[in-house]
Amino acid sequence: MTTTLSAKDIRALKIGAVGAVAILVFFFGSKWQDRWAQARAGRAELEAKLDAINVDKARATTVPLFEMPKTEDEQKFLFRDKLTEQLKRAGIRNEPLQLLPAKRSSVPGYKLLLVKCSAKCRFSQALDLLARLNENPYLAGIEEFRIKVDPKKRENVDLDLTVSTFAK
Fold it and tell me: Which of 98, 123, 126 is nearest to 113 (CA)?
């Protein structure tokens, strides 16, 4: 029994196949679209949480800036100039900075250069300087930070600060 398909039958089969493919595309496409919508909603929720934290992106660095140490002569001038700039930015008038003799550091191959600063300023200026010291790319550490309050004018303080940097 051989049956030949007429043109109408072939056209009906083609339309049926296209319909079956359309049903499959619609079925799987709607599932994919639902997953995509959930993913976008989840992303929007996470972005809203991150925006709610409201952290200044410029100051949210976890690793402070750091320049690799140069030779002792170069490093002391770079460090002293940057520290002087930070003192001026904080509005602190200081006595001339003292370069203390280099010490041996715990890091092999490097010396520890110390710079001592004495100044009279307001308490808020001292705190501003302390908050911004980590912006100095040559700073290795704060060795001494001493504040002495003026008994007559409590807002004014005597500031003694010793900071260090590494040098080759």
Answer: 98
Burial readout 43-65 (b: 16 or more C-beta within 10 A, e: otherwise) = eeeeeeeeeeeeeeeeeeeeeee
Strand-pairing partners, residue 12, are none
Would you state the structure tokens that stand for residue 168, as one six-digit string?
């080759």
CA distance 25 to 28: 5
Q: CB–CB of 119/95 below 8 Å?
A: yes
| Residue of 85, 101, 86 lying closest to 167 (CA atoms) | 101
CB 66 within 8 A of CB 135: no
The residue to which tokens 């056209």 are assigned: 11
For the segment 1-59, what is each residue's pLDDT rounded down to a tens digit? 567 889 999 999 999 999 999 999 999 998 999 999 999 999 999 888 887 776 665 55
Q: What is the pLDDT of residues 109-157, one digit of tens each?
A: 788 888 899 998 888 888 888 888 888 888 888 888 899 988 888 888 9
